Amino acid sequence: MQLAIPFMQFRGGSSKGLYFLADDLPSDPNERDQILLAAVGRDARQIDGLGGAHPLTSKVAVVSRSNRADADVDFLFVQVVVGENRVDTTPNCGNILAGVGPFAVEAGLVAVQGDTTVVRVYMVNSENLCELTIQTPDGRITYEGNATIDGAPNSSAPIICNYLDVAGSICGALLPTGNSQDVIEGVAVTCIDNGMPVVLINAQALGKTGYETCAELTQDQVFRSKLEAIRLQAGRLMNLGDVTKKVVPKMTLIAPPQQGGNISTRTFIPHTCHDAIGVLGAVSVATACLVPHSVAQDVAIIPSGNPKHLSVEHPSGEFSVALEQDAHDHVIKAGLLRTARLLSRGEVYVIV
């Protein structure tokens, strides 16, 4: 039997996903996940679903009106693991988060407040908050504007994302191992979580320049085996347990910037080199640049001022992050520019 479920599809940042109201899905997590797998697609090609056969287009947002005094909506991020017929709700996704504000307005969960509307989002995955400022001139949401981001074509209305106190959101501490550097498999690494668990490695430590194409890195099986061995050990050290079937921690190779930014990156999610870099992944990488004695400190060009504006270079461009520090140089707020656009709305039919 086919079941019809209301949905919207948004491009959020440099990703794309299906957005659902929690009330339109089963309350039982296992039943919900099976519905989402059927909607996005269970096989590697996702030929029988709406996914795009790529991690960046196999994402889901489940949104509901929040009961919290400090939030308007609750947002659960679900990553469909392409070709493995399973989902992962461990990480956040800042790109899909960017679409939650517009979705909340489109779905009637949040009322327009004026020329701009602030949507306070509680991120269920990490139990943190983010304030999204979206453009709502003339009492309605607009997707037209002059803001541009790498990884997405054309210009759109800006969405300002202010992450509030996301340090240790997944692992329990900004530096979950307690160290600014660790040695795993003979390689110096920095394990950090400022919204996304990330393991930073100087590319040269693994015999790479850090400027290789994604295809070159993904197809190098010897290199990837070494990277996975480090990831599995790092996962336990970062309080994530056995990460064999998890998409975190993200593994990021770093190198000196080449395009006028502050640091160059190549990130894996978890085994394929990412064409860009995730929102919260960029926040964690930028934060690591400011951590004394991290592997990034001697690689990155550190700007002056507070907040510090860092440009994180990636294969398809750059990602700008503004990090505000307190009197003790601790990062207390991360501000980012994203865009989003409503692509479709209607009903997705799943077989149950």
CATH superfamily of the largest domain: Diaminopimelate Epimerase, Chain A, domain 1
Instruction: Assign an overall shape.
Output: globular
Largest sheet composition: 17 strands, mixed
Count of discrete domains: 2
What's the number of extended β-strand segments? 17
Which value, in Å, is the CA radius of gyration?
A: 19 Å
- Range of strand content: 25-35%
**CATH C-level of the largest domain:** Alpha Beta
Low-confidence parts, pLDDT < 50 over ≥5 residues? none
CA(first)-CA(last) distance: 6 Å
Number of helices: 6
Order of helices and strands: EEHEEEHHEEEEEEHHEEHEEEE
- Going by helix content, strand content and strand pairing, the class is alpha+beta
- Helix proportion of residues, in percent? 10-25%
The assigned CATH architecture of the largest domain is Roll
In short:
This protein has 352 residues and is an alpha+beta fold. It has 6 helices and 17 strands. The chain folds into 2 domains: 178 residues, Roll (Diaminopimelate Epimerase, Chain A, domain 1); 142 residues, Diaminopimelate Epimerase, Chain A, domain 1, CATH 3.10.310.
Describe the structure.
- The chain folds into two domains: 2-166 and 339-351, Diaminopimelate Epimerase, Chain A, domain 1 (Roll), CATH 3.10.310.10; 182-323, Diaminopimelate Epimerase, Chain A, domain 1.
- It has helices at 29-40, 94-98, 100-106, 214-219, 221-237, 279-289, and strands at residues 2-12, 15-21, 59-65, 73-81, 86-88, 116-123, 128-135, 159-164, 182-184, 187-193, 197-202, 250-255, 263-268, 308-314, 317-325, 331-338, 340-351.
- It is α+β, with helices and mostly antiparallel strands.
